[in-house]
From TrEMBL:
InterPro entries: AAA+_ATPase, AAA_14, DUF4143, P-loop_NTPase. Residues 16-144 form the AAA+ ATPase domain. Signal peptide: none annotated. Gene3D superfamilies: P-loop containing nucleotide triphosphate hydrolases. It comes from the Bacteria. This is AAA+ ATPase domain-containing protein.
């Protein structure tokens, strides 16, 4: 059993806001967690992809008003955009009667429309929370197999599959469903095969600097079209764009973002890697591990954290820079080695940015000092240092 560590944070938001939006890609565990939260109080669950549940909302104001004493869980809420105005009216009416929290839990598998609609319609009434697939802390606490998590990724059905073959087949179906059904339903008119090729190209260059012109040449489209494809996958919470850390060091900085497919299991499926042996024998192994670590650290970081990478034309480079407040500027190097040694570029970068702490995250579990204030540290302990989300 994998216990979702974010449940207390979500319940805390429900106690302080009339509506909470739980965002995340499909199959990341939003519905399961919402139903668990609903079991602890009076609640009602509606799946807006179900015709029967959608029919109940033919007169949404009447139906929802009849359940005003319950927590109403609305799944795939972006499928019914007209509901947001109704929710605003019901929330305001409830506030006049003294109910200011614990009213609606909205689940959305894409941030594009949900964020747009809710920010405009429910401003001041809604809190946002992104629920990712299982993270490394949850997995290590529940099962203890980080390599399995790295190989299969964090989507529950993929991670918990009986074997690697079943896990890979689930991810293949997941990718196909997104390309052939989910993305077209959101409106963008992108050929499924073109988007698959683009997604696969990103996986091949996991963590690489974005070169839209070169990718566009490979796809036979313009650079602006590549940017549109990238925006789509970022908005769907499937790809992360890590921006350069802006510094006043006076050095010539790399300005292009680094691009990561967020779930490591999806990276491996896009590249046809099914087993750990396949993965470790592939050139992507190092960059896949780096992306895996970065994604988990950013999931663990507080919402106010600022993140980026540092790279100059002279070769100074840090994989990840995190700032979580005054006196907490951290330079983080990532190495898949039990004897991690940062490159010269890391030390040059530290001379430039002067971080408050320096870490190298490696696959081991022991935390120990190296030199010049640098510490080797395991991934889950590094996540714990970043602290729980508020």
């Amino acid at each position: 059993m994998i216990e979702r560590r974010h449940r207390p944070a979500i319940e805390n938001l429900l106690q302080r806001h009339p509506a909470v939006a739980l965002l995340g890609p499909r199959q990341s565990g939003k519905t399961t967690l919402a139903l668990e939260i609903g079991e602890s109080r009076q609640s009602i669950y509606l799946d807006l992809e179900s015709p029967s549940d959608l029919a109940k909302l033919a007169e949404p104001e009447l139906y929802l008003a009849a359940h005003e004493d319950k927590l109403v869980i609305l799944d795939e809420v972006q499928r019914a955009p007209d509901l947001f105005k109704v929710l605003r009216g019901l929330i305001d009416a409830g506030r006049r009667r003294g109910r200011r929290s614990d009213r609606f839990l909205l689940l959305g598998s894409a941030s594009i429309e949900l964020l747009k609609q809710s920010s405009e319609t429910l401003a001041g009434r809604i809190a946002m929370f992104e629920l990712t697939p299982f993270d490394a802390q949850e997995v290590v606490k529940g099962i203890g197999d980080m390599d399995r998590h790295w190989l299969r990724g964090g989507f529950p059905d993929s991670f918990l599959a009986p074997d690697d073959r079943d896990s890979a087949e689930w991810r293949q179906a997941f990718i196909r469903t997104y390309l052939e059904r989910d993305i077209p339903q959101l409106g963008p008119r992108v050929p499924a095969e073109t988007l698959r090729r683009f997604w696969t190209m990103l996986a091949h260059e996991q963590g690489g600097l974005l070169n839209a012109a070169r990718i566009g040449q490979g796809l036979g489209v313009a650079g602006v079209t590549v940017a549109r494809y990238l925006d789509l996958l970022v908005d769907l919470l499937l790809v992360r764009r890590l921006t350069p850390w802006m510094s006043n060091t006076g050095k010539r900085m790399v300005k292009s973002p680094r691009i990561f497919v967020r779930d490591s299991g999806i990276v491996h499926t896009l590249l046809g890697l099914e087993t750990m042996e396949d993965l470790l024998g592939h050139p992507v192994a190092g960059s896949s591990w780096e992306g895996y670590v970065i994604e988990n650290l950013l999931v663990a970081a507080p919402d106010n954290a600022q993140a980026g990478f540092y790279r100059t034309s002279a070769g100074a480079e840090v994989d990840l820079i995190l700032s979580t407040g005054p006196g907490r500027l951290w330079a983080i190097e990532i190495k898949r080695s039990l004897s991690p040694q940062p490159s010269k570029g890391f030390w040059l970068a530290c001379d430039d940015i002067k971080p408050d702490a320096r870490f190298v995250v490696y696959p081991g579990t022991e935390r120990y000092p190296l030199k010049d204030g640098l510490e080797a540290i395991g991934l889950t302990e590094m996540m714990a240092l970043l602290g729980p989300r508020p």
